[in-house]
Design a protein that fits this description.
Helix content is about 35%, strand content about 20%. It is an alpha/beta fold.
């Protein structure tokens, strides 16, 4: 059936009373030319929708009933598994969450394959994967994704994600299977300005899935993938603080950049928050470590530095080297770092002290903050009374952590660069830096 322009507009106005069903209409699903004015259906419809976009709002009277079901996104799709395994996707964090919509007959009305949340926690994007061979009209696809997005119960998604702040919901049609040649000399399919404007107004866009080497521009004034604002960093930290034992493993903890808005070092922003929230480690279970005979630890580490220190039997100015090392364990009793050397120093008298120092070597990829948090996590899980009894040390012995650096090492240079930003936090956590030296020295 062909339409005159006036007939098309009258039909559209009538169907506009139920905007969630617009994409099912024949004049939107198919291409056509008006019989009187020779305009394309798409041109006429887009003009109307742009003029009335403000009226495209879901209400109790203009929308069908749909039930939202949230499931894990993981499945048999290799593409989907690859996306979810990344730390970032489309400049956001991939979320293992698929969303399904059921109609009144409990039949599937629509679904989104996976989700992403922007680093600020303010924009949740639902992705619908679709093959490039799909010949659905662009306007039909846009309205379909918009209808599905608006039909989703956002409160249910917030509960599933444990998100308590309001967020904006967007939808993306992710085209898969397109040839890489579309990014070369072959001209891409153009999208009209009107279509782009409507997509922006409705919070819907279309992107193509690419797999391979690609570039992320790094220029002042541009949004840089992986670069955080101060607010984004603190949002991530607050979210992850419920599991302090794994904080040192987070990628942003190991980042050594500066915030994109305030220009502060990441380490400074994170350290200031952690300094006032050290109590989050107090919930960790005690005893997640085991003693290991020193020579066995040296064999596991294959570290000449510890082997030479053990032969010397003392490590001034921190006292004697104990025969046992500590091997720290995660919640599933897996090893969480290299064995730690134990040093004991004491002084009698009224101003005397009894100190056990846990000496750790940082991992090669650690930032100073990551090394400090790993060491403090290890200190937090020590059962002090039990360990002192096993080592035959006074029960009032205090425990401190020390991070061992190699002299004239690039990692040592980076740690010393960040030290001013972290000194207050390290002092409060009882964690310090030491550098191994070999030669003559005057000691007390």
């Amino acid at each position: 059936m062909g339409y005159r322009e006036s007939e098309l507009l009258e039909t559209l106005k009538k169907d506009f009373q139920h905007p969630d069903l617009l994409f099912t209409k024949d004049y939107i699903r198919q291409t056509g030319i008006t019989e009187d004015t020779g305009k394309s259906y798409e041109e006429v419809i887009l003009s109307f929708l742009l003029d009335h976009a403000g009226d495209m709002v879901k209400s109790d009277t203009n929308w069908s009933m749909y039930r939202t079901v949230v499931k894990e996104a993981k499945g048999g799709s290799r593409l989907l598994a690859g996306i979810l395994s990344q730390e970032t996707f489309a400049q956001s964090v991939p979320v293992d969450m698929a969303v399904f919509l059921k109609d009144s007959r409990t039949l599937e009305w629509g679904h989104f394959d996976f989700s992403t949340m922007d680093k600020s926690g303010k924009v949740l994007t639902l992705f619908s994967m679709q093959p490039e061979s799909n010949r659905e009209r662009p306007l039909c696809r846009l309205l379909r994704l918009w209808s599905w997005k608006e039909s989703v119960n956002a409160h249910l998604l917030a509960d599933a994600l444990s998100v308590h702040s309001p967020f904006l919901l967007k939808a993306v049609g992710l085209v898969t299977g397109a040839s890489n040649e579309r990014y070369g000399l072959v001209k891409k399919q153009t999208v009209s300005l009107s279509m782009k404007r409507l997509g922006i107004l409705l919070g819907v866009s279309e992107l193509y899935l690419f797999h391979g080497f690609h570039l992320s521009p790094v220029n002042l004034g541009l949004s840089i993938s992986g670069r955080y604002t101060k607010g984004e960093l603190l949002t991530l930290l607050e979210k992850d603080s419920s599991h302090p034992e794994s904080l040192y493993q987070k990628s942003y903890i190991n980042c050594m950049g500066i915030t994109s808005d305030t220009g502060e070092p990441y380490s400074k922003v994170l350290a200031e928050w952690l300094l006032h929230h050290r109590e989050i480690w107090m919930t960790l279970p005690r005893g997640l470590y085991r003693r290991i005979e020193g020579s066995r630890a040296e064999f596991l580490m294959k570290n000449d530095m510890f082997r030479n220190v053990r032969k010397q039997k003392v490590l001034p100015p921190f006292g004697k080297v104990l025969s046992d090392d500590l091997l720290f364990l995660g919640s599933r009793y897996q090893q969480t770092g290299r064995p730690s050397l134990l040093l004991y120093d004491a002084e009698k008298g009224e101003q005397g002290y009894s100190l056990l120092r846990v000496l750790e070597i940082p991992e090669s990829g650690d930032s100073l903050l990551a090394a400090v948090l790993r060491t403090f996590t290890h200190l937090a899980v020590i059962d002090g009374a039990k360990l002192m009894d096993e080592l035959k040390l006074p029960e009032e012995t205090q425990v401190e952590g020390r991070i061992l650096l190699e002299k004239d090492n690039r990692q040592a240079d980076l740690f010393l660069r960040d030290l001013p930003c972290l000194s207050s936090l390290m002092k409060a956590m009882g964690v310090g830096l030491v550098i191994m030296e070999n030669g003559y020295e005057a000691l007390w």
